[in-house]
Structures are given as structure tokens and as C-alpha cells.
Amino acid sequence: MIRGFGNRPVQAKLAYIxxxxxxxxxxxxxxSFITDKVYSFRRDMVENLAILANTIxxxxxxxxxxxxxxxAEDTLSALKAAPYVKCATIxxxxxxxxxxxxxxxxxxxxxxxxxxxxxxxxxxxxxSGEEIHNFNEGYLSLASPIMLDKKRLxxxxxxxxxxxxxNRLIISIVIVIVLIGALGLLAQVVSVRLHRFIAWPxxxxxxxxxxxxxxxxxxxxxxxxxxxxxxxxxxSFNSMLxxxxxxxxxxxxxxxxxxxxxxxxxxxxxxSNEQLKKEVAERKIIQDQLxxxxxxxxIGTLAAGVPHDLNNILSGIVSYPxxxxxxxxxxxxxxxxxxxxxxxxKKAAAIVQDLLTLSRRGVTAMEVVNLEKVLDEYLxxxxxxxxxxxxxxxxIIKDLDPGIMQIMGSELHLGKxxxxxxxxxxxxxxxxxEVVVRLENCYLDTPVPGYGKVNEGYYVRLTVxxxxxxxxxxxxxxxxxxxxxxxxxGLSGTxxxxxxxxxxxxxxxxxISVVSRPGEGTVFSLYFPATMEEQKEIxxxxxxxxxxxxxxxxxxDDVEEQRLIATxxxxxxxxxxxxxxxxxxx
Length: 586
Prior knowledge:
Layout: H1 2-6, H2 10-59, H3 61-65, H4 69-76, E1 85-92, E2 97-102, H5 113-125, E3 132-136, E4 139-148, E5 151-161, H6 163-198, H7 200-215, H8 229-327, H9 335-358, E6 367-369, H10 371-379, H11 382-390, E7 394-400, E8 406-409, H12 411-427, E9 433-444, E10 457-466, H13 473-476, H14 497-507, E11 511-517, E12 521-531, E13 552-556, H15 560-572, E14 576-580
Parallel strand pairs: 7-9, 13-14
Antiparallel strand pairs: 1-2, 1-5, 3-4, 4-5, 6-8, 8-12, 9-10, 10-12, 11-12
Helix pairs in contact: 2-6, 8-9, 8-15, 9-14, 10-12, 12-14
């Protein structure tokens, strides 16, 4: 502690010495003063309370002799004139309560058990006429015997509040604090005076050195007061600061040049790094797209030869039931089985159509399409109603912007795309919820997620959003792969639904993005290029317009089954049919 004091500044040392001596004297005097005040007050309180108790006791002798508690209560009520008296109780010689008084009106319990047990017990053991008192918890309790002709009739116990004592103590403490503050101020003034004459030059030098050390500012100078030893030290220190300032100016110049070179190089590296990251990201996207395209092309090549043969086989399964249904009535016993065979054939034909789309040979012709009309046709179709019957907890919400633009495409494939997306959304929802199908016009000038670049222009965006279980991040990159599905094969499709969606979007020169979080749902966004061409209205032919009037038709097909089916159907319609396998002469 002494070593720490020795390291203090001179100004602080002077101030500490003056204040320590002054504070010691003031504190000693304050303690003596407060102690005397407390002792004298307590003594005066005991004397005054004893006189008051003696007076009340004398006035209560008659009430005790004649056993009149009411008169004793009237006598005790005179204590109202003494505001510091909290409560009082008159006891008989045997310690039982004779009469009580309380300033708050709750006197029956004011003389607590401790007073009766200890204070009254001591009074009974004391000499005749001797008072017993104690100080406890801010109160003075006093027990005084009630005497008549040197005979004790009972006891008077009084409990007085010491609030006045505390008020006096507080006033004394405030006086002491004011005195200490005044003394501290006086000590500060004295120490400043001493410091100005003795330590100011040294303090000025030390303060300047501290400023130089903290701020590294060498342009400051120490003020010189006199030409003594401190003056010589000041001149030397100022010369040293001047030399350091010149050196720092040169270093700062070189540092600025170096920082400019480093900043230029850093900016070049940052630009190169950003460009490299961008190129790597674009290359990864292109590689992923190329790998997917190669996989799809390989699978498409494999699937390209299958649909033609399957269509030849299925044509008989679909066409012959149609021909037979034309020849029999609805009440015929074979009508329903033939319808079942025809429906199964159409389902198989739909799978063949998916394979055609997979092989990129499904979209054969492009025409102006109103995507809003395609959506409405699907929502009103039996397929949609059947799907809703299988998923009664799902509700489809249609949200359309006004004035949806036209696109170039195939209504068949676009309708199948909407159907696949809606069915997948419904099957992903295990709890009641909504599938929101939204159509809106938009303008693309920035890449869609998953694509390095896009063709800028107007697009029609088809969004299908569900509140289902979502798709894991590890599965997102594989959802468009053929036969990649988390569903049971044969129960929820063929595994080609999303592949067909991807192929359709690609055939329509569009873009597709998927956002999904497990437990929150999935959002598919499809972008189709808009067109300014107008849709042509094609009249729908009625069934009877296909009926022939004996006209001749030549059927050329190298497959005998196809020739027979076409010949039978055309003859059923009333045409004169000739069928050959080729254009060569027999």
C-alpha cells in the first residue's frame, strides 16, 4: 500500500496528505459528537419516560385498589399528549393484564410476549420502586412499579418510539458529511496551491509525455516555466519531439505510397476472385445441366424405339373396343367390359406418350395457347375430380392475374404438366391444406435459380404451391430424374411425372425452379416465353360430319393389324376402303 502511494502523482500525494489529516480530525470529532448525542438522548428519554410512568402509576392506584380497569384506561389515555409513546399496559402483581392503551387503537396485542416475559419478569425481581428499561428495534421499553405506601400494587409497562433519536442522528450525520465535504474542498484548494508552486513544471512534462505515448502525436511541445533544471529538461524533450516528428513525416509518406499500392492490388485480386467465383458457379450450373441433359438424352434414346412398337400394339386394344362399341348398344352385356378394356388401353397409351415426351419426341407441333384456358379445362376435368375424391382434405385455389398473355406450345403437354404438378402437390399433403395454382405475367432479365442465364423478355409464370411435407435438400437435384420417386411404384404413378414436366418445359424453351423446405411445403415455378400472336379458333367437328357417303379411301400401312383396324373403322363410317402395304405394284 505504501509502495502504491509512492507511485501516485505529486498532486495526488499532496491532496491525500491534507485530506487524510483533516478527515481524521473531523471523523474523530464527529464520532465523539454523535456518541455524546446518542448517550444523552437515551438518558433523557429514560428519565422522561420514568417520570411519565411514575405519574401515570400514581394516578392508577385507585383503579387498582378498587379493581376498576375502565378508570385505568381513562388514566392511560392521557398518554395521547406524549406523541412518542406507542403503547402502555398496566399489570397486576401476578403478571396478568389489568388495562391497555395503544396509539393506533390496536392495544390488545401491542405489548408483545417478549416484553411481558423479559421486561416484566425483571421488574418483578427488582428492588421495590426500581424501574427496568431496555432498547430494542428502535423502541424504548420501560417497566415501573405502581407503589402505594411502599406497597407494590402492580406494574406499568410503556413502549416509546425512538424516532426523535434517529432524526437527531440523521441531522448530526448530515452535519458531519457537510463538514467533510467542506474540508475536502479546502484540502483540494490547498493542494492545488502547493502543486502550482512545487510540481506544476514536472506535471506539465509528464502530461505531455503521456499525450505523446497515447496519441502518438509528436507535434506537441512542453511549456517552459523557468530556466532552472526543469527548463533544461523541457528544452531537451522538445528537441527530441522535433526530430521524431520529422522522421514520422517521412515514414508516413512512404506508408501512404505502400498502402495505395496494396489497395490497388487488393482491388484487382478481389475483382479477379469474384470473376473466378462467378465463372466457377456458371460452369457448375452448365456442367449439371449438361450431365442431366446427357442422362436424359441417353434414356430418351433408349425410350425412343419403344413407343412406336407399343403404339402399334395398343392401337388394337384402343381401336377395336371403339369399333365394337359403335356396333352394340349401351345395354349390351359386353358394353361395360369393352369400356374397361378401352380405358386400360388409353392409360397405357398415356404412359407411351410420357415415354415420347421423355425421348423429346412428344411435342410435335406448336400453336398459340391460352394457358388460363388449359388450366380451367384441367380443373373441370374428370381426372381432377377423381384426384379430389381421393384427397378430400385438399382444396385447390386458383389465383390468376388479369390479362394473361399467350404462349407458343402444346395444349396436351401443358395440360399434362399442370396435372402432374397438382397431383404431386396433393399427394404431398397428409393434413388438410390448399394447393394454390397461380398464373401471372412477368419480365425476366436476371437468371432463374438453377440457370446461368436466361433469354430476356416477357414470360407467363405458372406457380403450383402446396403446404405439404416438403422435399429434402438432398432429393431436390434428383426429382426430375426418370423413375426417381419416394412413392410406391404402381400406386402413385410411374415415376415419370416430373420427368415429363421437365421435358415439357425444355421443349417449350422455358425455365423451372423449385423451392422447398421440409415441413413447410414446396413451390414449383414454371416460366414460358410469351408470344404476341393471336390464337386461332378451330371449329369443333360434330360426330355426324365424319360419316361417309360411299367415298373411296386408300389406306397404306406396312403393319397388317393397323391396316385391318383402319379399314374396319372407315367402312363402319360408310367409306369404300382399299388397303395396301406399300406403293409398290404387286
